[in-house]
Known about the structure:
It holds the Pfam family SDH_C. It is globular and about 50 Å long.
Amino acid sequence: xxxxxxxxxxxxxxxxxxxxxxxxxxxxxxxxxxxxxxxxxxxxxxxxxxxxxxxxxxxxxxxxxxxxxxxxxxxxxxxxxxxxxxxxxxxxxxxxxxxxxxxxxxxxxxxxxxxxxxxxxxxxxxxxxxxxxxxxxxxxxxxxxxxxxxxxxxxxxxxxxxxxxxxxxxxxxxxxxxxxxxxxxxxxxxxxxxxxxxxxxxxxxxxxxxxxxxxxxxxxxxxxxxxxxxxxxxxxxxxxxxxxxxxxxxxxxxxxxxxxxx
Length: 262
């Protein structure tokens, strides 16, 4: 059941849901970083990422924040033939930071990171294995990075409107590229252009189902019905099954460890 919440009203909405006896909620943009600030405790890896997309209301009145985006992304990356090497990551919001953390865990060699607001390209953690290279938006350097990388990830809000475009996308994608877009709108021009260029395309449904499965298990204590979830999403969006729905190495993302930061 969706609850549309205006920006700046998340804390009020969470308190109201908790008072109503709701067990927990899934949170989406633009609220993921605000959700982290509103929680009493952050469970790993939300405490490292600084963004929350699942909130569990405990019986003692506390709010526990989780990041199942990161868990779902790790599960998705595990389906690749080999670990990611050179990656372009577009975006710097809560979802993008979850992706960046997941790329660190997967052992990516280089992440070329770009965002329309360059001042937001600040990683809250480091990695001995992964080098993060900030790249100016729409620059020639970004074009070179996209040519150099085999995986391009769009974690921006671009793609939901027909007029949305990403710099250099149509000029750099090829059959050797994988384009992963967190957007899952079936008529997205970005997804259509990527497919037209012959790239392997993974749309946001792949991550949406995986993070939803992890959230379902966290809030109910039961295994998520993945096949039912996939069918329901396809029916809702009016789309057919795609290669983005390849079965994960395990049947759903695992729940996070109980470690938390108060």
